Amino acid sequence: MKTSVVIATYNGEEYIEEQLETIKNQTRTVDEVLVFDDLSQDGTALLITNFIEKYALSNWNLIVNKANKSYSRNFYEGVSQATGDIIFCCDQDDIWNEKKVENMVACFEENSKIQVLSGNYSYKIDKSLPVSMQFYYKAENFKNHFNTTVKSVRFSSKGVFSGGGPGWTLAIRKEYFNKISPFYSPVFSHDGFFNTFSSMDRVCFKYLGETGEFRRYSGSTSDSSLVHTNEKLNRELLLTKNYLERVKIAQNYLEQKEEVNVKQQQKILFKQSKALKARQNYYLEKNLRSLFRVLYSWKSFNPVWVVKDVLNYGTLGKSEQ
Q1: What is this structure's pTM?
Q2: Thinking of the domain 3-216, which architecture would CATH place it in?
Q3: Which end of the chain is more exposed for a tag (fewer CB within 10 A), N or C?
Q4: Keyword Glycosyltransferase, does the record have it (predicted)?
Protein backbone atom coordinates (compact mmCIF):
# COMPACT_ATOMS: atom_id res chain seq x y z
CA MET A 1 0.00 0.00 0.00
CA LYS A 2 1.26 3.44 -0.92
CA THR A 3 1.09 5.94 1.93
CA SER A 4 0.68 9.71 1.87
CA VAL A 5 0.81 12.31 4.63
CA VAL A 6 -1.06 15.57 4.13
CA ILE A 7 -0.04 18.46 6.39
CA ALA A 8 -1.93 21.75 6.56
CA THR A 9 0.06 24.65 8.00
CA TYR A 10 -0.60 28.25 8.93
CA ASN A 11 1.66 30.35 11.15
CA GLY A 12 3.04 27.23 12.78
CA GLU A 13 6.74 28.03 13.07
CA GLU A 14 6.88 27.33 16.82
CA TYR A 15 6.29 23.57 16.60
CA ILE A 16 6.45 22.62 12.91
CA GLU A 17 10.03 21.32 12.89
CA GLU A 18 9.35 18.93 15.78
CA GLN A 19 6.26 17.69 13.95
CA LEU A 20 8.22 17.12 10.72
CA GLU A 21 10.93 15.23 12.58
CA THR A 22 8.39 12.74 13.90
CA ILE A 23 7.16 12.04 10.36
CA LYS A 24 10.66 11.69 8.93
CA ASN A 25 11.61 9.23 11.69
CA GLN A 26 8.72 6.80 11.13
CA THR A 27 9.71 3.12 11.20
CA ARG A 28 7.75 2.70 7.96
CA THR A 29 8.90 5.38 5.52
CA VAL A 30 6.04 7.44 4.12
CA ASP A 31 5.91 7.33 0.31
CA GLU A 32 4.59 10.87 -0.15
CA VAL A 33 4.47 13.92 2.11
CA LEU A 34 2.51 16.96 0.93
CA VAL A 35 2.60 20.17 2.96
CA PHE A 36 0.01 22.80 2.09
CA ASP A 37 0.82 26.16 3.62
CA ASP A 38 -2.13 28.57 3.79
CA LEU A 39 -0.12 31.76 3.24
CA SER A 40 1.58 31.84 6.64
CA GLN A 41 2.68 35.28 7.81
CA ASP A 42 5.59 33.91 9.86
CA GLY A 43 8.55 31.73 8.93
CA THR A 44 6.65 28.45 8.59
CA ALA A 45 7.15 28.00 4.84
CA LEU A 46 10.86 28.80 5.03
CA LEU A 47 11.39 26.35 7.89
CA ILE A 48 9.68 23.61 5.89
CA THR A 49 11.71 24.38 2.77
CA ASN A 50 14.96 24.27 4.74
CA PHE A 51 13.92 21.01 6.43
CA ILE A 52 13.21 19.32 3.09
CA GLU A 53 16.51 20.53 1.63
CA LYS A 54 18.53 19.63 4.72
CA TYR A 55 17.47 15.99 4.63
CA ALA A 56 17.15 15.72 0.80
CA LEU A 57 13.56 14.53 1.07
CA SER A 58 12.74 14.07 -2.60
CA ASN A 59 9.30 12.62 -1.86
CA TRP A 60 8.28 15.66 0.22
CA ASN A 61 6.67 18.69 -1.38
CA LEU A 62 5.67 22.11 -0.06
CA ILE A 63 2.78 23.83 -1.82
CA VAL A 64 2.08 27.43 -0.80
CA ASN A 65 -1.53 28.29 -1.59
CA LYS A 66 -2.15 31.25 -3.88
CA ALA A 67 -5.02 32.36 -1.64
CA ASN A 68 -5.98 31.54 1.94
CA LYS A 69 -8.31 28.53 1.88
CA SER A 70 -9.02 28.08 5.61
CA TYR A 71 -8.18 25.06 7.72
CA SER A 72 -10.96 22.78 6.50
CA ARG A 73 -10.67 23.34 2.76
CA ASN A 74 -6.87 23.28 2.92
CA PHE A 75 -7.00 19.73 4.31
CA TYR A 76 -9.81 18.60 2.02
CA GLU A 77 -8.11 19.77 -1.16
CA GLY A 78 -4.79 18.42 0.11
CA VAL A 79 -6.23 14.94 0.54
CA SER A 80 -7.77 15.27 -2.93
CA GLN A 81 -4.29 15.75 -4.40
CA ALA A 82 -2.62 12.94 -2.45
CA THR A 83 -1.88 9.79 -4.46
CA GLY A 84 -1.53 7.24 -1.67
CA ASP A 85 -3.85 4.30 -1.07
CA ILE A 86 -3.85 5.30 2.61
CA ILE A 87 -3.71 9.01 3.44
CA PHE A 88 -2.70 10.28 6.88
CA CYS A 89 -3.76 13.76 8.02
CA CYS A 90 -1.27 15.75 10.07
CA ASP A 91 -1.46 18.99 12.03
CA GLN A 92 1.48 21.32 12.52
CA ASP A 93 2.01 21.07 16.26
CA ASP A 94 1.64 17.48 17.48
CA ILE A 95 4.12 14.67 18.08
CA TRP A 96 3.76 11.36 16.23
CA ASN A 97 4.81 8.06 17.77
CA GLU A 98 7.57 6.60 15.58
CA LYS A 99 5.52 3.45 14.83
CA LYS A 100 2.28 5.25 14.03
CA VAL A 101 2.33 4.69 10.26
CA GLU A 102 3.63 1.12 10.52
CA ASN A 103 0.99 0.06 13.03
CA MET A 104 -1.96 1.79 11.39
CA VAL A 105 -1.15 0.54 7.89
CA ALA A 106 -1.02 -2.98 9.32
CA CYS A 107 -4.57 -2.46 10.61
CA PHE A 108 -5.77 -1.49 7.12
CA GLU A 109 -4.02 -4.48 5.57
CA GLU A 110 -5.55 -6.91 8.06
CA ASN A 111 -9.14 -5.61 7.86
CA SER A 112 -10.63 -4.54 4.54
CA LYS A 113 -13.73 -3.15 6.32
CA ILE A 114 -11.67 -0.28 7.74
CA GLN A 115 -12.08 2.87 5.63
CA VAL A 116 -11.28 5.50 8.26
CA LEU A 117 -8.95 4.72 11.14
CA SER A 118 -8.01 6.93 14.06
CA GLY A 119 -5.51 6.23 16.81
CA ASN A 120 -5.22 6.52 20.56
CA TYR A 121 -3.08 9.29 22.04
CA SER A 122 -2.13 11.20 25.16
CA TYR A 123 -2.40 14.94 25.77
CA LYS A 124 0.73 17.07 25.98
CA ILE A 125 -0.52 19.80 28.31
CA ASP A 126 0.96 23.28 28.37
CA LYS A 127 0.72 25.39 31.52
CA SER A 128 -0.61 28.32 29.47
CA LEU A 129 -4.04 26.66 29.49
CA PRO A 130 -6.66 27.62 32.11
CA VAL A 131 -6.38 25.43 35.21
CA SER A 132 -9.81 23.90 34.56
CA MET A 133 -8.75 22.69 31.10
CA GLN A 134 -5.42 21.40 32.42
CA PHE A 135 -7.36 19.36 34.97
CA TYR A 136 -9.68 18.00 32.27
CA TYR A 137 -6.83 16.86 30.01
CA LYS A 138 -4.89 15.35 32.92
CA ALA A 139 -7.97 13.37 33.92
CA GLU A 140 -8.31 12.12 30.34
CA ASN A 141 -4.66 11.00 30.35
CA PHE A 142 -5.20 9.17 33.63
CA LYS A 143 -8.23 7.28 32.27
CA ASN A 144 -6.52 6.31 29.02
CA HIS A 145 -4.91 2.91 28.47
CA PHE A 146 -3.00 1.82 25.37
CA ASN A 147 -3.29 -1.62 23.75
CA THR A 148 -3.16 -3.07 20.24
CA THR A 149 -6.91 -3.60 19.89
CA VAL A 150 -8.84 -2.20 16.94
CA LYS A 151 -12.47 -1.39 17.68
CA SER A 152 -15.40 -0.35 15.54
CA VAL A 153 -16.69 3.18 16.18
CA ARG A 154 -20.45 3.42 15.89
CA PHE A 155 -22.63 6.39 15.07
CA SER A 156 -23.63 7.25 18.62
CA SER A 157 -25.99 9.63 20.39
CA LYS A 158 -23.38 12.31 19.74
CA GLY A 159 -24.38 12.33 16.08
CA VAL A 160 -22.04 14.48 14.01
CA PHE A 161 -19.59 14.42 16.93
CA SER A 162 -19.25 10.66 16.41
CA GLY A 163 -15.92 9.21 15.35
CA GLY A 164 -12.67 7.84 16.57
CA GLY A 165 -10.43 10.81 17.20
CA PRO A 166 -9.01 14.19 16.17
CA GLY A 167 -7.74 14.88 12.67
CA TRP A 168 -4.03 14.35 13.26
CA THR A 169 -4.70 10.73 14.30
CA LEU A 170 -6.78 9.95 11.21
CA ALA A 171 -5.98 7.91 8.12
CA ILE A 172 -8.43 7.30 5.27
CA ARG A 173 -8.50 5.07 2.22
CA LYS A 174 -8.38 7.22 -0.92
CA GLU A 175 -11.11 5.07 -2.48
CA TYR A 176 -13.50 5.90 0.38
CA PHE A 177 -12.55 9.58 0.29
CA ASN A 178 -13.58 9.66 -3.38
CA LYS A 179 -16.93 8.09 -2.47
CA ILE A 180 -17.92 10.68 0.17
CA SER A 181 -16.20 13.66 -1.45
CA PRO A 182 -19.37 14.95 -3.22
CA PHE A 183 -20.95 15.60 0.19
CA TYR A 184 -18.12 17.78 1.50
CA SER A 185 -18.93 21.27 2.77
CA PRO A 186 -16.64 23.83 4.46
CA VAL A 187 -18.91 23.69 7.53
CA PHE A 188 -17.12 20.41 8.29
CA SER A 189 -13.61 20.18 9.59
CA HIS A 190 -11.76 17.48 7.68
CA ASP A 191 -11.85 15.14 10.69
CA GLY A 192 -15.51 15.89 11.36
CA PHE A 193 -16.29 15.05 7.75
CA PHE A 194 -14.38 11.76 7.73
CA ASN A 195 -15.59 10.69 11.18
CA THR A 196 -19.26 11.51 10.63
CA PHE A 197 -19.64 9.77 7.29
CA SER A 198 -17.54 6.71 8.12
CA SER A 199 -19.39 6.15 11.41
CA MET A 200 -22.72 6.41 9.58
CA ASP A 201 -21.42 3.88 7.03
CA ARG A 202 -20.13 1.62 9.81
CA VAL A 203 -16.59 1.68 8.41
CA CYS A 204 -15.00 3.85 11.13
CA PHE A 205 -12.49 2.17 13.44
CA LYS A 206 -10.05 3.16 16.16
CA TYR A 207 -6.63 1.68 16.87
CA LEU A 208 -6.13 1.76 20.64
CA GLY A 209 -2.35 1.73 20.46
CA GLU A 210 -0.38 4.91 21.02
CA THR A 211 -0.06 7.15 17.95
CA GLY A 212 1.40 10.25 19.57
CA GLU A 213 0.88 13.29 21.77
CA PHE A 214 -1.88 15.83 21.19
CA ARG A 215 -0.44 19.22 22.12
CA ARG A 216 -2.86 21.44 24.03
CA TYR A 217 -1.81 25.03 24.67
CA SER A 218 -3.21 28.52 24.78
CA GLY A 219 -3.43 29.59 21.16
CA SER A 220 -3.98 26.13 19.69
CA THR A 221 -6.82 25.71 17.21
CA SER A 222 -9.31 24.48 19.81
CA ASP A 223 -8.37 26.87 22.64
CA SER A 224 -10.48 30.00 23.13
CA SER A 225 -9.26 31.13 26.55
CA LEU A 226 -7.74 34.35 25.22
CA VAL A 227 -10.67 35.33 23.00
CA HIS A 228 -12.55 38.51 23.97
CA THR A 229 -16.03 37.85 25.37
CA ASN A 230 -17.89 39.32 22.37
CA GLU A 231 -15.67 37.40 19.94
CA LYS A 232 -16.20 34.23 21.98
CA LEU A 233 -19.97 34.68 21.82
CA ASN A 234 -19.93 35.17 18.05
CA ARG A 235 -17.55 32.25 17.64
CA GLU A 236 -19.82 29.87 19.55
CA LEU A 237 -22.89 31.03 17.63
CA LEU A 238 -21.12 30.46 14.31
CA LEU A 239 -19.83 27.09 15.48
CA THR A 240 -23.33 26.01 16.47
CA LYS A 241 -24.73 27.21 13.15
CA ASN A 242 -22.10 25.17 11.31
CA TYR A 243 -22.95 22.06 13.28
CA LEU A 244 -26.63 22.50 12.49
CA GLU A 245 -25.64 22.55 8.83
CA ARG A 246 -23.55 19.41 9.36
CA VAL A 247 -26.64 17.67 10.72
CA LYS A 248 -28.65 18.65 7.63
CA ILE A 249 -25.94 17.30 5.30
CA ALA A 250 -25.77 14.05 7.25
CA GLN A 251 -29.56 13.75 7.08
CA ASN A 252 -29.46 14.24 3.31
CA TYR A 253 -26.78 11.57 3.00
CA LEU A 254 -28.86 9.07 4.98
CA GLU A 255 -31.91 9.71 2.80
CA GLN A 256 -29.95 8.37 -0.17
CA LYS A 257 -28.98 5.12 1.61
CA GLU A 258 -32.01 3.06 0.58
CA GLU A 259 -30.23 -0.28 0.98
CA VAL A 260 -29.86 -0.08 4.78
CA ASN A 261 -32.05 0.79 7.77
CA VAL A 262 -31.07 4.27 8.93
CA LYS A 263 -34.05 5.08 11.17
CA GLN A 264 -31.96 5.02 14.36
CA GLN A 265 -29.36 7.33 12.85
CA GLN A 266 -32.05 9.72 11.63
CA LYS A 267 -33.56 9.75 15.14
CA ILE A 268 -30.14 10.65 16.61
CA LEU A 269 -29.73 13.51 14.15
CA PHE A 270 -33.23 14.84 14.88
CA LYS A 271 -32.43 14.97 18.62
CA GLN A 272 -29.09 16.58 17.93
CA SER A 273 -30.68 19.29 15.82
CA LYS A 274 -32.94 20.19 18.76
CA ALA A 275 -29.96 20.18 21.14
CA LEU A 276 -27.95 22.49 18.88
CA LYS A 277 -30.86 24.90 18.61
CA ALA A 278 -31.01 24.94 22.43
CA ARG A 279 -27.30 25.81 22.49
CA GLN A 280 -27.89 28.57 19.96
CA ASN A 281 -30.59 30.03 22.22
CA TYR A 282 -28.25 29.82 25.21
CA TYR A 283 -25.70 32.10 23.57
CA LEU A 284 -28.45 34.48 22.51
CA GLU A 285 -30.46 34.57 25.75
CA LYS A 286 -27.46 34.24 28.15
CA ASN A 287 -29.47 32.99 31.12
CA LEU A 288 -29.43 30.03 33.50
CA ARG A 289 -32.63 28.51 32.15
CA SER A 290 -31.21 28.26 28.64
CA LEU A 291 -28.00 26.74 30.06
CA PHE A 292 -30.07 24.02 31.79
CA ARG A 293 -31.69 23.21 28.44
CA VAL A 294 -28.22 22.65 26.98
CA LEU A 295 -27.14 20.49 29.93
CA TYR A 296 -30.33 18.43 29.56
CA SER A 297 -29.11 17.47 26.06
CA TRP A 298 -25.51 16.78 27.11
CA LYS A 299 -25.47 13.38 25.41
CA SER A 300 -25.72 15.11 22.03
CA PHE A 301 -22.48 17.06 22.52
CA ASN A 302 -18.77 16.60 22.73
CA PRO A 303 -17.85 16.71 26.49
CA VAL A 304 -15.48 19.64 25.83
CA TRP A 305 -18.44 21.70 24.60
CA VAL A 306 -20.38 21.03 27.81
CA VAL A 307 -17.42 22.10 29.96
CA LYS A 308 -16.93 25.18 27.80
CA ASP A 309 -20.59 26.20 27.97
CA VAL A 310 -20.62 25.98 31.77
CA LEU A 311 -17.39 28.00 32.03
CA ASN A 312 -18.73 30.62 29.61
CA TYR A 313 -21.85 31.26 31.68
CA GLY A 314 -20.05 33.59 34.09
CA THR A 315 -18.75 35.82 31.29
CA LEU A 316 -21.71 35.95 28.91
CA GLY A 317 -23.24 38.95 30.65
CA LYS A 318 -20.11 40.97 29.91
CA SER A 319 -20.88 40.83 26.20
CA GLU A 320 -23.74 43.25 26.77
CA GLN A 321 -21.59 45.84 28.54
Answers
A1: 0.88
A2: Alpha-Beta Complex (3.90)
A3: C
A4: no
